[in-house]
Amino acid sequence: MKMSRTQLYRTLDQADVGEWEALKVLADQSPWRQTFHIQPEAGLLNDPNGFCFFNGEYHLFYQWFPLGTQHGIKYWYHTSSTDLVHWRNQGIGIAPDTIYDSHGAYSGSAIEKDNLLYLMYTGNTRNKDWKRYPFQCIAVMNTQGHISKLPPVIEHVPDGYSDHFRDPKVWQDGEYYYCVIGAQRINHTGCAVMYRSPDLQTWTFQGELQTFLPSFGYMWECPDYFELNQQGILLFSPQGIEPFADSFQNIYQSGYMIGTPLDLNTCEFDHGDFCELDHGFDFYAPQTTLAPDGRRLLVGWLGMPEIDYPTDHQGWAHCLTLPRELTIEQGELRQRPVQELTQLRGQRYHVNHTVDNQHHLLSSMQGVQYEMLVQISDIQATRIGIELRVGNNEKTVLYYQPELEKLTLDRSLSGQPLALEYGTTRSCSLSLDEGTVTLHLFVDTSSIEIFANDGRKVLTARIFPQPDSTGISLFAEDGSACFDVTQWDLL
Ligand code: FRU
After folding, report:
1. Taking every annotated instance into account, which residue ranges of this chain make up the domain Glycosyl hydrolase family 32 C-terminal (predicted)?
2. Residue range 5-330, CATH number
């Protein structure tokens, strides 16, 4: 049942006695609870926020509507971890409890200064006619984890932009702090703008990022800018891009452009094409941070806006992706699961099998939550692949067509259907790597993350199979291929 606007904009303080607890009881009974992904105890999760390393720990907040599974009033929920693998729930980080964030503490980022963590976020407000007024706000967390709010730091949208003005991502360069903010021009095209500050409190408008995309969708959400290998990378999530061949198939997109470092004075950014970060069904609004050892890490929302999900009736919705490490190699962005995830590895299984024009159900491997490395070589077939979560009339299929150099994820038979109007397959180009295809998979109760050919392509999706759909099958059509498969139970 859809909630009314009044119900959606109630804070936890305004909930009925036991209301959230009842939602949690419902969520606890859901057959699709994840086991190694960050997920809300109850309610709806969306964007990752404030991802950082501070005071000896990683902190990762997320957008959270506690009282239902639709997008209502948003909080920042706080989690922390020493190893990027085991996350502790820390409770509410930022509540929408001032006049500057009365209709939601929207997305933002974190940066350390003077042993304090500054959380910069968008305070979403609405007047009685439901007109939106965004404020860019700051909250400060001390080393005890106590968070307090400062007055808003950007109170007005600059001329030329609409009230869709949000999601500050802050970084430091030399003596200044900078932030990029997602914006919409008054002609209804999306862009990102930049501000500069000497102290995180006084911000000056530097201008709009000068890209080669004057008309690319109607809004850019969650921009992020960083440098890697002496190159500048702008990430953002544009809305309003039309599908094209195998690209841009989801309701909204999320991608990056690589270029020469952004000119922090003129805002000029000389960049290449916009590329999707993830070629799966469910990935949006990612955010990066710098690890203390210099790695650039990324986490995304493993979900999409405006799509109904099968857990919506089960008291909870969505989770975050596993953390990925980003690198640029031979000019190409690579994304690999962070190496810390190997800590989860339990019992290991291995098979090496030549499959010749058949489907071969593995007798020694099955599962619901696992990591798997599949190396396919000696490929003499027109289509090769692997079927996961196989059960009665159910399977999630990942296949490669060598002649087309194309990798496809097919969730048409994955279980409970979703987002059917956006199709049931996702494909991307993938060149053979010295004649082989390598698939590194992380399968949780209701998701799959696929890293292909050592992080060259990634496909992420929610799937909603029956609990007893646990089979794993290899196949080769019109010829043969050699499969080397290693599977780890996850602890
Ligand atoms: C992206 C987004 C952001 C906004 C937040 C609200 O999913 O729409 O632009 O800050 O979600 O929850």
Report:
1. 340-488
2. 2.115.10.20
Minimum CA distance residue for ligand 1 atom 9: 221
Record the tokens describing residue 367, joined without a space. Answer: 């599962």
From CA 121, how far away is CA 48, in angstroms rounded? Answer: 12
Residue 31 Cα to ligand 1 midpoint, Å, equals 27
- Would the pLDDT of 491 be above 90? no
Q: How far is CA 406 from CA 183, 254, 289, 384, 385, in A?
A: 35, 20, 31, 11, 12
Which of 13, 16, 28, 47 is an active site residue? 47
Is 47 assigned a catalytic role? yes
pTM above 0.90, yes or no: yes
Pairing of strands 75-81, 88-94: antiparallel
What is the rounded CA–CA span in Å between residue 183 and residue 173? 22
- Indicate whether 455 pLDDT > 90: yes
End-to-end CA distance of the chain: 36
The DSSP bridge partners found for residue 288 are 298
Run of H or E residues at 85: none
pLDDT at 1: 73
161 alpha carbon to ligand 1 midpoint, in Å? Answer: 17
Cα 195 from Cα 207, distance rounded (Å): 7
CA distance 119 to 289: 13
Question: Residues lining ligand 1, CB < 6 A?
Answer: 46-47, 63, 74, 106-107, 122, 166-167, 221-222, 284-285, 305
How is domain 341-490 classified at the architecture level of CATH?
Sandwich (2.60)
- Please state the domain extents for the chain: 5-330, 341-490
